[in-house]
């Protein structure tokens, strides 16, 4: 007797298998994803689809507006390459990066708050001994002497902690943006001493505009927003047994602290940039004028990790 096998793709049509109206679209998509095995992926995607669909029903885009939105997303990818990450930049100027950073890296138990990694972090920073200078060229601007202590949230110093820094130049450009700068200029990796202390010399950074030659720049222009970030220095502070801190310290005399294009200025991350107009530098015996900035960091117990660089 000959038997026939049923096609596994031919399943009974359920009440949710076909689209009846705009509300049923969300239900059908949710049903399609319900068998996702990874529980976290299932939760994240269900919430993402729910809120994206609600967003569309709220703003009710035309077909042309929807296509324009898709073109913007595609343009973010096209503008991302080895030296520029437009996707990260978009997340920054929409406040997404700062929101996630603040949710995951607040001031719990006295730890130093986190701040954006930013689109210009690069791996393989030069290694320096404490007190050395990260400036590799004849950069204009006044020297800046940075110092501080790395401690645990219980107040105990952390010797041997990694303190990695990077910053823009006095004309507001990172080394990968400026062909006149040496490779990995104004970047450095230090280790704290037995008392948890660190210190290094740099040059005072300038505030700068984020890249505006891509889709993010067009968005900012359409919103009548300036593209500037206040002067700051990026830090990664890490030690075994402690949760790695990715943060920034901002110049307190900047006039755009409250309008940072990436919304990244946390009140506790404003550092005192002090102009010294007489005397000698705290190390290196340089004559005034120069700036000093002292800033301490507090790490909480946890896992030591390092972020993935968004560019080469």
TrEMBL record:
Transmembrane portions of the chain: none
GO molecular function: catechol 1,2-dioxygenase activity; ferric iron binding
Cofactor(s), by name: Fe(3+)
EC number: 1.13.11.1
Keywords of this entry: Dioxygenase, Iron, Metal-binding, Oxidoreductase
Domain Intradiol ring-cleavage dioxygenases: 146-174
Protein name stated in the entry: Catechol 1,2-dioxygenase
Gene: catA
């Amino acid at each position: 007797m000959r038997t026939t096998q049923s096609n596994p793709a031919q399943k009974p049509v359920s009440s949710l298998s076909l689209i009846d109206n705009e509300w049923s679209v969300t239900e059908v998509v949710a049903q399609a994803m319900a068998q996702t095995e990874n529980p976290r992926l299932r939760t994240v995607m269900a919430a993402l689809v729910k809120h994206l669909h609600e967003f569309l029903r709220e703003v009710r885009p035309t077909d042309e507006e929807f296509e324009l939105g898709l073109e913007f997303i595609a343009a973010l990818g096209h503008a991302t390459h080895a030296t520029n990450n437009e996707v990260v930049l978009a997340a920054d100027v929409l406040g997404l990066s700062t929101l996630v950073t603040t949710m995951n890296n607040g001031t719990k138990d006295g730890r130093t708050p986190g701040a954006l990694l930013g689109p210009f972090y690069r791996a393989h920073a030069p290694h320096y001994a404490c007190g050395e200078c990260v400036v590799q060229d004849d950069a204009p601007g006044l020297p800046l002497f940075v110092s501080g202590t790395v401690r645990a949230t219980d107040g105990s110093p952390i010797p041997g902690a990694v303190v990695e820094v990077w910053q823009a130049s006095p004309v507001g450009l990172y080394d990968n943006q400026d062909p006149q700068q040496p490779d990995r200029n104004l970047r450095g990796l230090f280790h704290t001493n037995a008392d948890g202390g660190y210190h290094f010399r740099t040059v005072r950074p300038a505030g700068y505009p984020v890249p505006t030659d891509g889709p993010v720049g067009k968005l900012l222009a359409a919103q009548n927003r300036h593209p500037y970030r206040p002067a700051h220095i990026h830090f990664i502070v890490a030690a075994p047994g402690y949760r790695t801190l990715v943060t920034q310290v901002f110049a307190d005399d900047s006039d755009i602290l409250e309008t940072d294009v990436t919304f990244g200025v946390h009140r506790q991350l404003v550092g005192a940039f002090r102009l010294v107009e007489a005397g000698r530098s705290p190390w290196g015996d340089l004559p005034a004028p120069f700036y000093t900035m002292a800033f301490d960091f507090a790490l909480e117990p946890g896992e030591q990790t390092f972020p993935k660089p968004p560019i080469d």
